[in-house]
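Example record

The entry below shows one chain as it appears in the dataset: sequence first, then structure tokens.
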Amino acid sequence: MNSKDKIFDLKMLNHFMDQKIESDSLNNDLRTMMRYSLEAGGKRIRPALFLAVVRSLGGTINTSTYTTAMALEVLHTYSLIHDDLPAMDNDDLRRGKLTSHKKFGEAQAILTGDALLTYTFQLLTDTDFDGKQIKELVHLFATAAGADGMIAGQLEDILGNNIQYSLSELKQLHLNKTGRLISLAVETGIVVSNSNISEELRSWYKEFGRNFGLAFQIFDDILDVTKTSKELGKTANKDVSLNKNTYVSILGLDGAKKELNRVIQQCQYAITQIRERIDFETDSLEVFLSDFKIDGEIK
């Protein structure tokens, strides 16, 4: 994602993550497997979005901020490892490399995912934020990733292999499965900025995060049927082979593109509302929308 380089130095975050995971007390075999997936070339969208929100609210970028950014990426990486398992999507490729279970074995991949999930909360408590902030962060991370968030979305996704969802049901599925961790990045940015912002402004940030997460998933559904495995870094047409409910399967390709455009407009409107209510720079939020391009154009 080129736009994230406008938000922060990607090399700096990757270096920080590399040093942190190397210095923490971890089983060496698990450390190796954790690093394999963490360093597989992810786009770092969630930490980048988090840092963009912090900057838009005039927050400080420091060691604790980077530790929290890392926690977001660690949590996301755990979800990918488990999502790729034979019992789930049974994928061979992730980010152009062998998936964790193909590289190390299924049992090892399950344990690596478990290790990353628990390491997420270790990272949050390694920060220097005050007790109230850490408590709020732990609660946000647990609920976003848990039984009323991402895990619920994963279950809805699996159950959907055997039934046809309505558009509203598919939207709720993706707001949980993909959107919750993206919304988490936005809400986390508000917490660590220690900003005494109005509920109205907070609601517009949440509206942006919610729609950005939805746009991200619609875009992914479109890419799944329009790009090759080499271009995607993962198996193309996987959703079709698993009979998954997607925006393309329900609306058709043109309909999915129109829905993507509508949701992007919702994101842009939320940014406009945020811009009218704060004194800091918000362009760092706008650049994320430039990545939703199909054949060189935003659709």
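Notes for this example: The longest helix spans residues 247-275. Strands lie at 93-94, 97-98, 293-294, 297-298.
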